[in-house]
Amino acid sequence: MMGGGFSVRIVCFLILLQFLDSCSALPLCTDSRAPFTPTSPLQFCPYNGTTCCSYTDDLSLKKQFSSMNISNPGCASVLKSILCARCDQFSADLFRVDSGSPREVPVLCNSTASSNSTNFCSQVWTACRNIPILNSPFAVPLQGRAAPPTNSSNSTKLTDIWQSQIDFCNSLGGPSPPSSNDGPQCFNGAPVTLDNTAPPPPPPSGICLEKIANGSYLNMAAHPDGSNRAFFANQQGKIWLGNIPKQGSGEMLELDEASPFLDITDEVHFDTEFGMMGIAFHPKFAENGRFFASFSCDKAKWPDCAGRCACNSDVDCDPSKLPPDNGAQPCQFQSVVAEFTVNGSSSEKGANPSEVRRIFTMGLPFTSHHAGQILFGPRDGHLYFMMGDGGGIGDPYNFAQNKKSLLGKIMRFDIDNIPSPTEVDQLGLWGNYSIPKDNPYKEDKELQKEIWAIGLRNPWRCSFDSSRPSYFLCADVGQDGFEEVNLISKGGNYGWRAYEGARPYFPPQSPGGNTSLRSINPIFPVMGYNHSDVNSNGGSASITGGYFYRSMTDPCLHGRYLFADLYAGAIWAGTENPISSGNFTSSKISFDCADDSPLSCTFTPGSPLPALSYVFSFGEDNEKDVFLLTNSGVYRIVLPSRCNYTCANENESTAVTSPPGPSAPPPPSMATPLR
């Protein structure tokens, strides 16, 4: 995936022809699942090919339409199209799933909002305003509006609810997507189509960085209060609260290494692939002071560490038959998610190092591939937990494809409704959490109830797009040849270890059995790169996932997804074209360090690139600026002109520079995750 970019979708399609019935990463359906190709064609709704409706869904919509008893053919026609919009592969966008307020009807294209938009909203009003509609989808309360009065037959006219077309379209209408990267779709009475003729924007000329700290951190989380503060955590088990300087101020990150916000280094087992792997702050942290840490522990040294082993009879695995790994016994090391709280009512006083409760504990069969990141979903408020396949070359026990195993999965917990100890035991839970009612086990009875997505090797850094929360991207570390970025959807299977990327994978040994390629419908990566792209000898490569860049500091990066290789030799920018299509290309982007960086950058002899050492993670603050957390310090993306890069949209008058800051001592050492 070099130079001009490469679309993984093409590879996906070629393999699709040989093995599969469907393959799609985006768009998304209203239930957060990926669109699919139904086994039987739809009979009622005109959505064939990739759709969000099964044959059963289609029959249900037909029954709903018949129950409306619409007498007017014109009104019946537009109402049928509106009902069937749920089958559109862009239905999550049409029904504004990201808004957090479910809609019964899609956003109707309204020319009063945009001169470039089809005026379907006015067509609906003209056709149906005086037509009685039984069980009308328009009668559902909208945006705080009280439910409209209905007669005894539950029949409603549009004029019973709205006084005019303007009122109707102000409530239900919306413009067509603007030319920006953030425009949502609207419904014009027919299946959504995208303009595939427009060329993608040219890649940025480069990424300019400034160094604002020397410390080496694995995690960064913006303070939920919206301020310029953020939490930084290292792998050893400490969290600090720091103040991020304004862009162009020439100042460094304000963080007191001697006064951590939380210190649980006594509980955390720190080694190459062990340590504090994730932190997440409750969406209402400013009110309740709740936060969570994901970390590794050693039950041989800490009895409170022990939990059930991931290798167990439920997944046809016997831990007594597993060999020691790097001197450790099977499930000696555990993956933990624990809840903590602040001291008193303010985060300024730090946190209590004693756990409030243990959310999750699971023994790890091997000493690698534990992932461990935790994130709160921006729409649902649930806690997402990323877990690797447990280690071993080629996932020998095929945990990632085993629907009864939690290894190689993304899990989703409700941590606001804590069950009693008796309920935890009765339900066979791994800790103190509840199962969200809409987790995909409802549709796939074979899945463990905690699972949101399967088929991952070692998801290393995931993020929700702050502008479009339905875009949930996870980088997944490859085995032999390919590093990938996946767009995660509810119940999605991302292929490992039947596939590495979009290529069939055949493990050197498989005591846990194999998964037939024909037995799964994998969702292939939307971006990625070959190991040879960063190492001409085909050697080590390991992806680090990042963020959709939503700051306007560098306008030429806006809307692009950034990711890097651990070994700091390359950063990529992924571009989606058309917007909302799920079709991405990615290009390797040059990067440099500003001459006026608050802390001086060092450079590798013989290389024009700053010596970042290892890129452990990316971070995002409340201003949507993006940071690189590396072994050599903390770097922030700044105005491209500060590195003499050109961006036509940059307003040069806003560029504020400062003289180079003083050099500082090198950062403390940190174990290199051999992912």
TrEMBL record:
State a single Gene Ontology molecular function.
oxidoreductase activity
Q: Which Pfam families match?
A: GSDH
Q: Which cofactor does it need?
A: pyrroloquinoline quinone
A single cellular component GO annotation: plasma membrane
The record's listing under Gene3D superfamilies reads:
TolB, C-terminal domain
InterPro entries in the cross-refs: 6-blade_b-propeller_TolB-like (IPR011042), Glc/Sorbosone_DH (IPR012938), Quinoprot_gluc/sorb_DH_b-prop (IPR011041)
Could you tell me which SUPFAM superfamilies the record lists for this protein?
Answer: Soluble quinoprotein glucose dehydrogenase
Q: How does it sit in the membrane?
A: Lipid-anchor
Domain of life (superkingdom): Eukaryota
| Compartment(s) | Cell membrane
Query: What PANTHER family does this protein's entry cite?
Result: HEDGEHOG-INTERACTING PROTEIN, HIPL1 PROTEIN
Provide the family line.
Belongs to the PQQ oxidoreductase GdhB family.
Q: What is this protein called?
A: Glucose/Sorbosone dehydrogenase domain-containing protein
Report the source organism.
Erythranthe guttata (Yellow monkey flower)
